[in-house]
Amino acid sequence: MPVSRVSRKGLVSIPSKVRKALKIEEGDLLVWEVNLDERSATIRVLKDPYKHLKGRYRDAELTYEKVEEKADKEIVGEAGADTGA
Q1: Which DSSP symbol is given to 15?
Q2: Is 2 exposed, middle or buried (0-12, 13-18, 19+ CB in 10 A)?
Q3: What is the pTM of this model?
Q4: Selection from 71, 76, 79 nearest residue 62 by Cα
Q5: How far is it, in rounded angstroms, from Cα 4 to Cα 2?
Q6: What is the gyration radius of the CA atoms in the chain, in angstroms?
Q7: Do residues 31 and 46 touch, judged by C-beta distance below 8 A?
Q8: Taking a C-beta distance cutoff of 8 angstroms, is the pair 70, 52 a contact?
Q9: Do the beta carbons of residue 79 and residue 73 sit within 8 Å?
Q10: 45 near 28, Cβ under 8 Å?
Q11: Is 49 exposed, middle or buried (0-12, 13-18, 19+ CB in 10 A)?
């Protein structure tokens, strides 16, 4: 079982076997779900929003702002977060 150590600043390296198995790449987001009763956490990988949307839309009028808004909605939706909106 891969093991990581937490640094003084709270940083953790993801073991290469874990990165490869979960296909974690630079820019991906990690969503932490904490269970205080069990002192455990579940970590989900969200792929880099830019890579996720890249090439998906072929609309000539699509602006950066529209893509950014779509990426934000994808992240919030996949993370299960409530924006309050």
Answers
A1: P
A2: exposed
A3: 0.56
A4: 71
A5: 7
A6: 16
A7: yes
A8: no
A9: no
A10: yes
A11: buried
| Alpha-carbon span 49 to 81, nearest angstrom | 16
Neighbours of 47 (CB within 10 A): 16
Distance CA 85, CA 74 (A): 15
Dump the DSSP string for 35-70. Answer: ETTTTEEEEEEE--HHHHHTTT---TT--HHHHHHH
From first to last of its 85 residues, the chain has per-residue pLDDT tens of: 899 999 999 999 999 999 999 999 988 889 899 999 999 999 999 887 666 666 666 666 777 787 788 778 877 776 665 544 4
Measured distance CA(71)–CA(85) in Å, rounded: 16
Question: Coil, strand or helix: which one is 79?
Answer: helix
